Amino acid sequence: MNEHFSIEEELTKLPDSPGVYIMHDAKDAIIYVGKALSLRHRVRQYFQPSHNEGIKKAQMVKQIAYFEYIVTDSELEALVLECNLIKEHRPKYNTMLRDDKTYPYIKVTLGEVYPRVLFSRQIKKDKSKYFGPFTSATAVKDTIDLVQKIYHLRTCNKKFPDSFGKERPCLNYHMKQCPGVCTGNVSQEVYAKSVEGALSFLNGSYQPVIQMLEEKMQDAAEHMEFEKAAEYRDLLSSVNACMQKQKITNANEADDKDIVAVAQKGEDAVIQVFFVRSGKLIGREHFFMNVRLEETEPEIVAGFLQQFYGGTPVIPKEIHLQHPIPEQDVVEEWLSSKKGQRVYLKTPQKGLKNKMVELAEKNAALVLEQDRERMKKEEGRTIGALREIANLLGMDNINRMEAFDISNINGFQTVGSMVVFEKGKPLRSDYRKFKLKTVTGPDDYGSMREVLTRRFTHGLQERDERKEKGMEESLGSFSKFPDVIMMDGGRGQVNICQEVLSELGIHIPVCGMVKDDHHRTRGLYFGNVEIPIDKSSEGFHLITRLQDEAHRFAIEYHRSLRLKSQVHSFLDDVEGIGPARRKALMKRFESAEDMAKATLEELADTPSMDVRSATALYDYLHGLTNR
């Protein structure tokens, strides 16, 4: 943060020019990015007492420690820059897409001498022809397989004509699924006709293919070639199935278009997009967005268009919307510049186009309602469960819980685990593993004392380091302390934890998860009393999940250490012998005895070995054999 930054003073210096403004909080984090036709006018608005853009924007303004701006030559340039910065920094107070998806495309490599049909999730500026986007990767792969079976295009990644005759033809050639381009006997003209047919098929021209397959099927049947006839029959079925997927078609409208509609409830919104290509609805997709209560539907859609089309290279000629959006002419100009030709944002008022927009809106509302129901149930499992536990323990609020467990076999390689749940969900980035250093043998209490001491001592050190650097304590994973510690046991485990916290001067509530004789949780030990808990409640289920996760994490770590010790080689004890040299030695010598019989020169002559490591190995081996 710039400590000498004065918002009042900097507001007077703002230029009356188009550009992008970037708001920072006290931790230097970017919390909002916006564009303006006039930076002076727009940025000043935020800090005027009479200005009102809703509760969420007011909260944002309170957090602004300083701002910066970038001047552009036009509002269009400001829009492009705003899109890039939002995508890069994902600011807290911008309207944000909750999911970042990549869509599958069908790619025809027209830039190659002998083109191929491929599956792709990226569109590059090459000479290839792309079809999509599609919402189902399986449907794309099925379509590519069908095209291969009908047109027999090559699938290999060889470069022609350089690779002509260098290798024998592959299995596809012998199965008559490829004409054998690699033999050099297929002319470009003949192959190009197959490619043209594939392109026509992918563009939705199915009738010529159906006619061709029917003729071949009848011809094969007439010549008593029933296996061939059956193959053509199966291909016909596949083509008809592909046609049936295109149920919504407008024969009078051949242009590509996307239909975009929104449904909003509170701070949640769902955008529904119908993808129409060559007049056919090829798929649809919905997107969840975090929005402000005061944001209007046109504003939400405008934010979506910038983020979605800023990240996809395929932009249709037309985009149909429910309502006109703010600065529509600027967004149209931006989309047109990205596409390389004119793009139109339209708001149909009647007819089939309007009905399609209404259909998209109904779908968005349905998805939003279903999602809200799902989120309500999820909130019961997480936030609701935390409230139950907090009420049982007499606490105001619980957000972060930590649980610890010990794993060993008769005291061998004892390890500890620390798992973290925040807002009722596992926070795996904050999980930690401990390999015991001071405790030997089966001593669970001593092991737990070491684990807890190391965890919270490290946390205090991290806090001190961050304070010295002027950093916020909450930024570090270890310096985040829990609201409550859940111990996997009763009074004994709780007392150990309380002793460690007392020695370190830390005050955190400690709760024991008490088990019955069958090792199942029966209640909570807190404040020197055992508290019964309803086993059908969400709070009980959350405690069980936390306990099981701590146990699983500890066992997995212990198992990994055991496996490592089982594959230990005597070569690991020789200085200078790492994985690469060990592999080379084991490849050259069949056994340790053969290695011991080898001369120093033979050892040094082994790939990746040098004289120093060979000498160390030679001395080690002969030291062993002389004993």
Assign the structural class, choosing from mainly alpha, mainly beta, alpha/beta, alpha+beta, or little secondary structure: alpha+beta
Estimate percent helicity. 40-55%
Per CATH, the class of the largest domain reads Alpha Beta
| Quaternary class | single chain
Could you explain the architecture of this structure?
This protein is an alpha+beta fold. It has helices spanning 7-11, 39-46, 55-63, 75-89, 137-151, 171-174, 188-202, 207-222, 226-244, 297-311, 328-339, 351-381, 383-393, 444-468, 491-504, 538-566, 579-588, 592-597, 600-604, 611-625; strands at residues 19-24, 30-36, 66-71, 96-97, 105-108, 117-120, 129-131, 257-265, 268-277, 280-290, 318-320, 344-346, 400-409, 412-422, 425-426, 432-435, 484-487, 510-515, 521-526, 529-532. It has 20 helices and 20 strands. The strands form four sheets. Strands 13, 14, 15, 16, 17, 18, 19 and 20 form an eight-stranded mixed sheet that branches. A six-stranded mixed sheet has the order 4-10-9-8-11-12. A three-stranded antiparallel sheet has the order 2-1-3. A hairpin with a 2-residue loop joins strand 9 and strand 10. Helix 5 (137-151) packs antiparallel against helix 9 and helix 12 (351-381) packs parallel to helix 13 (383-393).
